[in-house]
Amino acid sequence: MSIGNLESFLEKKIEGFFNRKLSSVLEPTEVIKQLEREITRKRRKSQGGLVVPNFYYIEMAPEDYQRLCARRFLDELYVMVEKMVISNDSFMDGQLEITLNANEEFKKGTCEVKGTFVDDSYGEMEHPVEVPECHTIVLNKSEFKPPLNLPVEYKTVSLLAIEGPDIDSYLEFGEKQIYIGRRVNNDFILTDTNASRVHAYITYERHRHILYDAESLNGTFVGGQRVVSPQLLHTGDEIRIGETVLVYEVI
Fold it and tell me: Domain limits of the chain?
């Protein structure tokens, strides 16, 4: 074991020891840390780039489950995973699902996260995980209807105009397809006279945002290059439409 690996190993052990000694309950930050580690550990190479699991099973002690099983916490986990996919320049196939479960074998203040790949075509898992029917909350986006105090859409990224007549215009969005241009019912409305009525649009594919030029007169550019085919967006990309420059960022 190299010195770097040894230091990392000891750091994790010491951190875990003090977390158990100083905290009697499981903190949300610890769940998030373990979820991030599992995403990094399980990602794999696939056609088009790195792919991460789309099913996550989280076990914890019943006492911690009672504290953390609120929909709002699951909502935060969902958004965190979606943002991490974009920030790490990865992809995700299939629908994201997060399951939270109480397990009496776990000590208070501890948890375990297991990630796996679910094949939506056949409804099968690469490595099946047994999910008990009791004491379980599942966040499944297609079936989940948020209460009135939660956003209808999970917003993970933003567009900000940094140049042009609409400077400082701002839009946050997530899975919804958005349209950009001078038309009044676009999602991002421009007053730039060099922009078309529907100049460009952004779709959500494999949990990533893809930019398309809508056959505009003056073209759409990313990083100085004209968009002639679907353009995968990365955080920090600058999109030029006429005299307007929009920055795409994970929020």
Answer: 23-116, 155-250
